[in-house]
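User: Could you walk me through two proteins back to back? I'd like the raw sequence and the structure tokens for each, with a short line separating them so I can tell where one ends and the next begins.

Assistant: Of course. Protein one, sequence then structure:
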Amino acid sequence: MKTTSAQPPKQLAALEAATRASAFGMPSEFLTGSLLRSLSASKPGGKMLELGTGTGLATAWLVDGMDQESRLLSLDNDETWLKIARAELGNDPRLEIACLDGDAFLANLAPEVKYDLIFADTWPGKYRYLKEALDHVAVGGIYIIDDMLPQPNWPEGHDLKASALVEVLFARSDFAVTELNWDTGIILATKLKA
């Protein structure tokens, strides 16, 4: 279901067509994108990180909400999908698209590096290296994940991983955490203290 009032980013139709043609199996959804745009717009001059670019669907929404001073680093470990994202979004100077391993990136990130928004749309920063991702959210910053409601493509036992992740997030006293029954299931967490 799409909201009738949300005006999509201008690149979205081309990205959706290229995504369908590529057979990419984990595209970000329209409603998630709409929320991401609102969240990125709430961080003027923000420094943002997307873990799991895929074909750039969510990336387009994040960039669409950003002001001219904001910056987004979006990374994925598969150049096949990044080519699609770069074709439509690569000319935006506010966006850096990088082919990097998310685990290695988080493991080697300097402690002082902080982000105003982290969207973890892949295993690194979500099911792996979660603590590292959360440690790099600035105070007042947002950590967001999707696909937290049961999905048809979940492998056997993934529901247990998802439940364990929810428990870990809600046990953190340094974040205000909210589960949203929105689209594929969102968890939104705001950093309260360093």
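----
Protein two, same layout:
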Amino acid sequence: MRKGACERVTSETALDVRVDVDGDGETSIATGLPMFDHLLAQLAFHSGFGIRVAGRSLDGIAHHLIEDAGIALGRAFAEALGDRAGIRRYGSALIPMDDALVRVALDLGGRFFIRYDVPVAAQQVEGLEVAMVAHFFRSFACNASITLHADLLAGEDPHHCIEAAFKAIARALREAAAPTGASQALTTKGLF
């Protein structure tokens, strides 16, 4: 079973994150930030992964909780993938959500890079600071060693644009993490 966990306790936050890439685990999200919880639930559902995030802010600052959630989720996901042998490695998705259309392409090949181009015309969505969405994905991708490209191709409603990004990233992760049955890494180098 491909499972990973990360417990992250700092002077600012306390998080316990579990990931089951094969989807046999439960999904429960509780950070105390309703919109963030909603988005993480979309990530879990559309990836097909079992994801558990139990976290709270110790200093009352949402920025720290969202950043640390990205770090912990990235580390747990990387642990679940192990040496990454026998996975498809690449994934992509084109996801519409009403007016919004988001395109994502990613590589689980062990190198970090992110280009997140999902601009929205709002500072906050349902109490969530919009700038934190890109920051969450940067923290996640860095700690999971993922190359991630996300583009907003169309969209006006900020909620739809952000939610479509989470869904597209989830679907691309699902595709890239799918087992191939091979025993080696999908690289000419022999390992990631």
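The radius of gyration is 16 Å.

Let me know if you want the two compared in more detail.
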